[in-house]
Design goal:
InterPro entries: Haem_Oase-like_multi-hlx, PqqC, PqqC-like, Thiaminase-2/PQQC. Residues 12-222 form the Thiaminase-2/PQQC domain. This is Pyrroloquinoline-quinone synthase. Keywords: Oxidoreductase, PQQ biosynthesis. By secondary structure, the protein is an all-alpha fold. It has one domain (7-229): Heme Oxygenase, Chain A. Helix content is 71%, strand content 0%. It is built from twelve helices and no strands. It has helices spanning 7-21, 27-33, 39-64, 70-84, 91-102, 107-112, 118-133, 136-141, 149-163, 173-196, 200-228, 241-244. α1 (7-21) packs parallel to α11. The longest helix has 29 residues, at 200-228. The radius of gyration is 18 Å and the shape is globular. The N and C termini lie far apart (52 Å).
């Protein structure tokens, strides 16, 4: 990339990258959505994904701390409210715990993180470090994976409800909310990026930030696939469906 792109060209480049690299293309998600995982593998996915969910407000708080414009902070802080809720038992984190509860997972095991795969932990915390260390523009650009979230969420809900008798619509409530939250958030972030990436260097940084974030999401699924699908080699302290899966 050697010439400045127009805002619409930049958006097209970002969307093309997402179409190629977003984690909906990962083999693990294809197995999950088509009903080809067993209950223990679905539990492992939900448990490990909780680490990402619980760290989303930490990531957004790190971004919020970088914003000097009060108007910008007022918009961005809604993301934290969406995940933390305004009261106990509300918000995206609570809804994800409702999913892990419904799958029969011990809540303390989930929230403590003691049964996580190391790859999950490293990927999620690399993302937090990225938004702390890079420019505000890059931090905001890294959130643009939300552009592609509604499609994967729709496929996930339809596929899981069709194929897994241990999953209910109520257990998937987290995703119902994200169908409206993610488009709102991504529209704002995309508009911000298109306005502020006004040099070739900044546009390169924006594209690299989305590339990095796609890698964060993809690497979490790499860890799950390696540990719970093929070849089935996992960290000795990681979740073991045979002994820690509990009952539905």
């Amino acid at each position: 990339m050697s010439e400045l792109l127009s805002p619409d060209q930049l958006e097209a480049a970002l969307r093309a990258m997402g179409a190629r690299l977003y984690h909906d293309q990962h083999p693990f998600h294809k197995l999950l959505h088509s009903g080809r995982l067993d209950r223990g593998q679905v539990q492992a996915w939900a448990l490990n994904r909780f680490e990402y969910q619980r760290c989303i407000p930490l990531k957004d708080a790190a971004i919020l701390a970088r914003m000097e414009d009060p108007a910008l902070r007022r918009i961005w802080r809604q993301r934290i409210i969406d995940h933390d809720g305004s009261h106990d038992g509300e918000g995206g984190i609570a809804r994800w715990l409702h999913l892990t509860d419904a799958l029969g997972l011990d809540r303390e095991m989930v929230t403590s993180g003691r049964a996580l795969l190391p790859g999950t932990r490293f990927a999620v915390h690399a993302y937090i470090e990225f938004v702390r260390d890079r420019s505000l523009l890059e931090a905001i650009a890294s959130s643009l994976t939300e552009l592609f979230a509604p499609t994967i969420i729709s496929h996930r809900m339809a596929g899981m409800l069709a194929h897994y008798d241990f999953i209910s619509k109520e257990a998937l409530a987290y995703f119902d909310y994200r169908l409206t939250e993610a488009p709102r958030d991504s529209a704002f972030a995309l508009d911000y990026v298109k306005q502020h990436a006004d040099t070739v260097e900044k546009q390169q940084q924006v594209l690299a930030a989305l590339h990095f974030k796609c890698g964060v999401l993809w690497s979490q699924l790499d860890a799950l696939h390696f540990a719970y699908v093929e070849p089935g080699v996992r960290w000795p302290d990681a979740f073991d469906p045979a002994t820690q899966g509990g009952a539905v």
